[in-house]
Design a protein that fits this description.
Blueprint (H helix, E strand, L loop, with lengths): L10 E2 L2 E2 L2 H9 L5 E3 L1 H8 L9 H14 L4 E4 L8 H11 L3 E5 L1 E2 L2 E2 L2 H15 L4 E6 L9 H13 L4 E4 L7 H7 L5 E3 L7 H6 L4 E3 L3 H17 L1
Parallel strand pairs: 1-11, 2-3, 3-4, 4-5, 5-8, 8-9, 10-11
Antiparallel strand pairs: 6-7
């Protein structure tokens, strides 16, 4: 699904948080969905940032995969301290076809080499059963340079990651990152930023939305509350 003939037509994957939202986006014709850890955490009553118990997170993923007939990839933050084998087993049990794994913890980027070694173990366990999306947090917690993002992207690709995700990379830097990495690049689509087609034209193969769709849904609820008042 990451192969494309038109640069302006990236794989657009809405981030969902429950069975209802998953059915809405799947019903609108989206060919794949992703969960948002922040949105799922909010639905379950937890703060973002690894505070959701893994049992509850995987159960939420399973409810979503059961609700739709399209592939679902799961945002499982930094893996919740689980072993690579357990991560893969629990994702498959939940019905996921892939996962998003980030390289930071408590607001600090992890050592790139150690994280790459860990990703390699996940990739070996996953084989061809899961698409591993390696999130790169240097634009969120690191120095924000193309060099740092590319260095990590290359290491994670060598470790077996199928996709690399330099979250919050400025759109104007995407072409430089894409040119240096031999893997599909995931870009984050923000409400005030380029459209998915524009991100595709900049080199993104895959576009996701993080927690922004859930935020918009929450804002719609606030409008309903206002109308009721």
């Amino acid at each position: 699904m990451h192969e494309r003939g038109d640069a302006a037509s990236p794989l657009v994957i809405p981030n969902v948080w429950d069975a209802v939202s998953a059915r809405v986006f799947a019903g609108a014709g989206h060919a794949a969905l992703a969960t948002s850890s922040a949105a799922v955490a909010a639905v379950l009553g937890y703060e973002d940032g690894g505070h959701t118990p893994p049992d509850e997170m995987f159960a939420a993923v399973a409810r979503i995969t059961r609700a739709v007939d399209v592939p679902v990839t799961a945002d499982i933050e930094d893996g919740y301290g689980l072993s690579p084998r357990e991560i893969v087993e629990r994702l498959l049990e939940a019905g996921a076809v892939g996962c998003n794994l980030e390289d930071s913890d408590a607001g600090q980027v992890k050592d790139a080499d150690r994280h790459a070694d860990w990703l390699a173990e996940v990739s070996v366990e996953a084989g061809d059963r899961l698409v591993v999306n390696a999130r790169i947090d240097t634009f969120l917690f690191g120095d924000g340079s193309v060099e740092s993002a590319v260095k990590r992207a290359r290491r994670y690709a060598e470790a077996g990651a199928d996709v690399v995700y330099p979250i919050f990379a400025p759109p104007e830097l995407l072409p430089d990152i894409v040119a240096c990495v031999g893997r599909p690049v995931n870009a984050l689509c923000l409400p005030d930023g380029p459209t998915p087609a524009e991100l595709g034209a900049l080199g993104a193969t895959r576009v996701t939305f993080g927690h922004t769709l859930h935020r918009r849904a929450t804002n719609a609820l606030l409008d309903i509350v206002s109308d009721l008042a």
